[in-house]
Amino acid sequence: MDPPEINVSISVPSARTRPPLPLLSVPEHSLLPAPPVLTVVKVASVVGARPQFIKAAPVSREIRKHNHEVLIHTGQHYDEGMSDVFFRVLDIPAPDYNLEVGSAGHGRQTGEMLIKLEDVFLKETPDAVLVYGDTNSTLAGALAAAKLHIPVGHVEAGLRSFNRAMPEELNRVTTDHLSAILFCPTETAVDNLKREGIEKGVHLVGDVMYDVALASAQEAMKRGVVRRLGLEPKGYVLATVHRPGNVDEREPLASILKAFAECGETVVFPVHPRTRKMITKFGLEAHLPVTVRLVDPVDYLDFLGLLIEAKKVATDSGGVQKEAYFFGVPCVTLRDETEWIETVEDGWNAVVGTDTEDVVHAIRNFNPQGTKAKSFGDGHAAERIAKLLGGLA
Ligand code: UD1
Ligand code: UDP
User: Which of 5, 10, 54, 309 is the most exposed place for a label (fewest CB within 10 A)?
Assistant: First the structure.
C-alpha cells in the first residue's frame, strides 16, 4: 500500500503538569536522521496488556538508540501466551520491573498499580513516563506520574468511542487530560483533543501499530501458520472477541458464537482468556460445530499471518480492526461504535453489533472494494515519538 504523507506538528508540552519544557525543534518533513542528542533522557515506559507489548516494541527500540529506557510491566496480563511470547517474537527487552499486579476488579487492579508505580517512579526519577493505549495500566501509569509532576507521554492519544460504558473510554479520556505530550495516530484523534480543549503538546505522529505491522508482515508470512493449521488462504474468517460488554453476559456471547456457527465459513477464533472463562461458565462450547475452531491466543507473528490470509475478520478488538484495514481484509466489527472511524469512512469496516442475523449477513455479504486512503502514518511513528521524547533533555 502507498502510505500517505503525514504532517508532524511540533509544540511544547502542556503546562498542566509542570512548566513547559523545550522540545526539539525539527523542521517539518526533515525528521531523519536524528540530530545529535547531547543529554540522555530517561524514559519510564509502562506496559501491562497484550496490545501494549506490541505497541511498545518499535518505540522502545527507537528510544534506546539515543536515550535510556526503564521498562515497567504492571503484570496485568501474565499468561505466557498473553505476555512473554510477545517479548520474544518482537524482540522487546526484558522488563526492568514486573509489578505482578495480576487480575482483579478495576479499583483494586488500578490501585495496586498506582502504589507500585509510584515507588518505581520515586526510585528511578525518570524525565518522562510513557503510557500506551487505554487499559488500566495506562491510567495507573499516567496518574502516578502526573501526581509526581513527571511529564506523561501518551501513545494513541485522542481516540474516542464516545461510549462511557467502556472502561477503555474512561481510561483514554482521563489519561489524555493528565498527559503533557500527546502522540496522536490520526487527524481524527487531534480533532477529538481539540474539542476537549487540549491543543498544547499534541503531535500527529502516525500509528505505531502500523509501524510494527509493516515491519513484521514478511516474517509473519514466512511462519506458514495457515498451512500449519490446515487452512486455505482466503478460506476462513479470523475472529477475536474480548470486550466485557460482549462476553461477560451470556446473551451477546451466545449470539456471536451462533453467528460464527451459522455463517457458512470456517471460523478460526484465538480465544482471549476472559472469553475462554465465560464460554466455559456459560457452557457454550458444546454447541459449536467443527467449523468454529477455538484455539489458544497466538503470538503476534502468527496472528498477523492468519489475518493477512483471512477472507474476513470478525472482531471487537481495537487493534485488530486497524490491522484488517492495513492489509485490506474486510472487517466485521462486533460492536455498536468504533474509535477507528477512518476504517468505516473508507468502507472497509462494517460496524454491526452482536445480533446473530446482522453478523451472519455481514460475514456473508460485506465485500468492500477500492482504495484505502486514510492515513495511519508512514510506518515511522515510533521514530517521531522517540525524537520528541529525546527533546525533553
Ligand atoms: C484488558 C484491557 C482492554 C484490552 C485488553 C487487551 C482494561 C480495563 N482492559 O482487557 O482494554 O483491550 O486487555 O487484551 O485494562 N486473564 C488471564 N490471563 C491473563 C490475563 C487475563 O487468565 O494473562 C483473565 C483473567 O480471568 C482476568 C480476565 O482475563 O480477570 C480479564 O483480564 P483484564 O486484564 O482485567 O482485562 P482484559 O479483558 O484482558
Ligand atoms: N493478537 C495476537 N494474538 C491473538 C489475538 C490478537 O497477537 O491471539 C494481537 C493483534 O494482532 C493486535 C492485538 O493483539 O495487534 C490486539 O490486542 P487485543 O485485541 O487484545 O486488544 P485491543 O486492541 O482490543 O485493546
Answer: 5
